[in-house]
From TrEMBL:
Residues spanning the membrane: none
Keywords, in A-Z order: 2Fe-2S, 4Fe-4S, Iron, Iron-sulfur, Metal-binding, Molybdenum, Oxidoreductase, Repeat
Gene, per the UniProt record: fdhF
SMART domains: Molybdop_Fe4S4, NADH-G_4Fe-4S_3
Protein's UniProt name: Formate dehydrogenase subunit alpha
Amino acid sequence: MNRPCTITFDDKKLTGNADEPLIDFLENHGISLPNVCYHPSLGAIETCDTCWVEVNGEMQRGCALRTEEGLNISSRSAQATAARHEGMDRLLAKHELYCTVCENNNGDCRVHNALVEMDIPIQRYEFQPKPYPKDTSSPFYTYDPDQCILCGQCVEACQNVEVNETLSIDYASENPRVLWDGGKEINDSSCVHCGHCVTVCPCNALQENTMYGQTGPLTALPWSLKRPMIDVVKEVENTTSAKPITGISELDATWRQPGIKRTKTVCTYCGVGCSFEMWTRDRKILKVQPTPDAPANGISTCIKGKFAWDFVNSEKRLTTPLIRENGQFREASWDEALDLVARRLLNVRDIHGPQSVGFIGSSKASNEEAYLTQKIARPIIGTNSVDNSSRYCQNPATKGLFRTVGYSGDAGTIKDIEQAEVVVLVGSNTAENHPVIASRIKSSQKLHGQKLVVFDPRKHEMAERANLFMRPNASTDLIWASALSRYMFDNDLADHEFLERWVNNVDEYRESLAPFTLDFAEQKTGIPKQQLIEAAELIGRAKSVCLLWAMGITQHSHGSDTSTALSNLLLVTGNYGKPGTGGYPMRGHNNVQGASDFGCLRNMYPGYEKVTDEDVRKRWAKGWGVKPEQLSLEEGWGNFLMVQAAADDKLKAMYIIGEETAFSDSNTHNVHSAFESLDFMVVQDMFLSRTAEFADVVLPACPSVEKEGTFVNTERRIQRFYQVLEPLGDSLPDWRILTDLAARMGHDWGYNHPSEIMAECASISPLFAGVSYERLEGWKSLLWPVAEDGTDTPLLYTDGFPTEDGKASLFVLEWQEPLEAADEEYDLMLDNGRLLEHFQGSNQTGRSQGIWDQVPRSFVEVSPELAAERNIQDGTWVRLTSRRDSREFPALVTDRVAGKTLYLPIHFGKPGVNALTGEHTDPIVHTPAYKETAVKLEVLDKRTEPPLPSTNYRFGKRTPNEGVAVEVKWANEDYTLPPAQQTNPRKM
């Protein structure tokens, strides 16, 4: 609870929250205290000396002050004013002012703004260039030491927000600067190009390369012209004072504003759901600027969200419909293309029946577009064969949650993960797949003592940082999870009070754990018994535990059972329904959660209502204005089953939206063969993807930045995104295409804006009853379930579970061997997954040269022990052969993998992993067991350069520290407290 307090500031009584940073408190009252180094997401760094005030006669830095009852503060005293001016003078000795030709003079340069507020007439200390060149090595941003004021915000962001721990400042140096790995070039360091440092920089010392020459009337001038202009202006400043020049730069900042558009959007990559402003001039994307208001990410981004947007303006974008004739595509009008699609789909339905048509919705399109995809499938075609890419990744987790606790989403929010006493990561390479969530965990561990437990066959970054890291054998996670549950019961660590009040089936479940002894777990998983005990004690004695899992669990032949076992463990220890607890299956795509939430599932209407329930069918039929008989009561086929049905000549037509099914489904040969056997295939996408190459009609769709809508992130958080740019060429938003298609099929829905689609869904689905665009305006968000009055649910299960009796259930499980394992011939297991730099099939990230240069080719990771045994070195080519096919890759020798486990990134299509994976699936939800691929390895007589460039961040050496070492600066003999003048202002 916030406590009120009243302070006196410059003789005015101000009332607000106690224990609030003074700068924020004053800002809420419309009062600006000049400052440069303060950032609300970073707190007080105390490096810039521009915010001095007098408190009860004592000089203090305003950024470090927090409000309390009775504070009496003066910013107008002669001493405070002189101290602030001295602080600014010291900054200007390190920062060359040339605002009118500077790309950063856009109203948010804090050095410029503080200078204007202080109305400083002349610069006391002469600027002198530093003996360092600009660092332009990064393809994404530039560091200019001559503009750097040594405020340290970049260091604080890197060390304690992102916690990549790359940046530092050597205040003891004669010419201090920001250092990457202690003095490396940016692109030769451990920098992951997340952009945190650029986001928080208060001036132009760190700047996106896309900003250069793009923002103001004079910024495009070559430096050969800018330099003489700057020199002339400096002479004028020294004779007439800086005020006229400052006035001109103020005008320049104002003149720029109409040409620079700032639009809130939501990231199109992973499931974290980062939101930010996108700055554009015409079709040029200038930069991505996150804000503390963003509910999921605050100021955080990753390399993709911050920099991987070149695909939007790619010359490879589809801009007009295509129709296949005589084996070739030709351009067509929208009328011709949509008329053909409508006619052929209805014809297939009428001849072969509704079940002969299947739809795959996009996990990258909006909720509204997912809703319309299933609305075409169900009331128009009459089939429930509609699905999305969650079939390939998260459906097993969804099943595990349905079995135990009732909702198919994260139990809480990112804030809950941050505040947990213990975080357990299972089969989740969080730092690369969900970097912003990983940064929250790293920060909580570093700053607040959170304990991190990692179970994973691969030693990724989070495993390296873990307090306890265990490497289970492939496909054995159900065993250790069940053994830990048994340990809790056997050692009085189970939460009996919670179990008695909130959980069913406790006794039967406990009896079922008899086989899962620690000895059995050690034997099957390969994890030493003592480590299992240590993990059990840590989890069992913690007051709050969050457990996160991802495709390392779900993409196995029994992923549903293992997901269930993980949720069982949380129930046994009472880790649901209170802050800092719960199960968190990490969603991979930006809207894979929303695509399922809004009905792209073979067995569920929007809001997870069963298609087999007649009462549910009646409500949806009424809402859609159709007869109940038009809606099938039979579950449809999912993605995987659709492909099999096509191969068996049961599915005749497919409509695929924004999914690279030909790339991402298992056993590529069978998928391609199935597509070729279809009578009719429609693909709706931004690019002529591998999947689109099989289509009869290709419809050009828009990326999220060219339309409006909503996404649901991994937290269940619904957020609006706004249109940044006009659609490229004749491309159209998916919702517009689907609405126009439905009209041609006899169903004129008449939507003119996505808000109308959301309103319709909310009027029918209880889960979204209170969702509206008005309630999602700006940075606002809602976490489902949302009551009709708009009350949402950040933390689930606080007052029970969504079952008839309000209780969860412990689900009895048996250990089953994986459907594919290594044997004498296929003696290695091939793990696979994503890398930080790329996303999925790289249709988007692959359009950015800077991204591609970080990881330019495919490779297979080989353990040092296997490399030694078979004489493999970096760049040695190997042939991997599964029970289905062979592919060749260069090797990368790394201890990220161990023993006879290999790792292959999934992003590179032509030599793709799915030529090797099989069609064995989780029998419950039919998710392919991508992670169960046994291979044999042949060393080839071929050697090339190492597949990862030596400059890749994985080869960098981080320099962890506690943040900005301002105490070192203060202790330096060259430093004096303002308002006393500084002997060497450029250093301090």
